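Issue 218. Parser rejects a valid record. Input:
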Amino acid sequence: MKRDWWPRLILLVSILLLLGLPPERASFWAAVRSGDVHRARREYHAALQDYRQAANLWPASAVPFLRQGQTYLALQDYARAQDVFLAAMRRGGLICEARLGLADAHDGLGAHTLAIAEWQALAGKHPAAAEVHYRLGRAYVDRGNWPAAAREFAAILDAGLAVAPRMAQLAHYNLGLLLAVDDPMTATAHLESATAGPDGEVSAAARQVLGTLRTAQGVEDRAYAAALLGQVFLAVDELSLARWQFEAALALNPAYPATHAYLGHVFDRQGKESLAFCHLAAAMRLDRSYVLGYYFFGVYFRDQGEPCRARTFFARALALDPDNAALCVDIAQTYLAAPDYASAEAWLRRAVELAPEDARFHHILAQFYTDHLIQVRERGLPAARQAVDLSPDDPLAHDTLGWALYLTGNLRAAQTSLQRALELDPHLPAAHYHLGVVYAAQGRWDEAQWEYTRVLDLDPGGPFAERATGAMAEMSRLGGR
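Output the parser choked on:
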């Protein structure tokens, strides 16, 4: 367990004592600051311990309850978040922050109407709260209320509002998306501002949308221009905006097979199965040679839990595009659902044959062997090494190699590979879990416990968190903790 914050904590306590605060208040603020350090590192369970300690030291303060609620939101534990935000509100002070957190908890629990009502009330009472405007804007985007969404994002950029750089970037980005159709010049200015912001993912998405917007502006076919915007909105995971543009494209050209296929895929992503099927079928009727139409139909049936029907469409797509390695992986996944491991392996090996220099397919093949404990030493380990050789800076490849080494009994080399994975991506749940297993196998119980706890921090409700919980229970049963 890392302890590099401890000297700073002692220094902070000393400073507070020198400032004349009572010892219990000095300890309170030291616990809060320690929790803040852990939360900034996404060490959420350690942060909760500190905030609970702070609450015990000063039960009347709203601060530790507010911080606990924000931490529970990060852990997607929305019921507990509601409880502690209400506890913070009962103590008075920080009411705006606590109500904002409470609205976020409502939203996480699926009470979207209640969350919107709370955000609207907060916006009325605290018009300078940028976070409130942002949440309202996103809620309106999801509901297709574009003008209301644009007003909320514009409010964030009002001259009198002090806004953090990332929040300003998000406002510019969202306004760029919303104005792309009706006011492309203004949208371009907003997207250009977003590309210069501090969040790299938002900058990359803004550049992607900006490039497509410029292309669409030079297209005379309005249906095609709308479809282009729909495709880029889908690429940046803006499903409501993508649907809007694909529907606009079909209104201009109802016989556009690609747009039917894309719109069907959007409906599939949104859980609207009947509409998805209708548009995917329309795409097939209009163009029997459209590869993406078959692919989206395969994804549709896979989502419906029908792997055999999905395989039929993936196979048709592959017949039209025989060098597509990714389609081989899709077919392999349908055999894994059977399960038919021999056929799945054959298709994964076919993907590697089609793209021998692409590390992703070697990695997927290696994962197949390690996940199913099939010929790990003979085939899994070589595939994992090849993935690392082809992509030495890929943390996932190092993680899979480390796990393969563990499964073949080489604990020291496994530890080295997994630590390298975490150097490349400190927030990779799989690598933390696998490293915890390695430490447990070495009898290093405290270090294993720390890694398992990091999995709970980083993969709340996910498969690795479930495995880590089981591993900690087993470790406790064996007397390791």
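Fixed in the parser; the record now loads. Confidence is low (pLDDT under 50) at residues 1-6.
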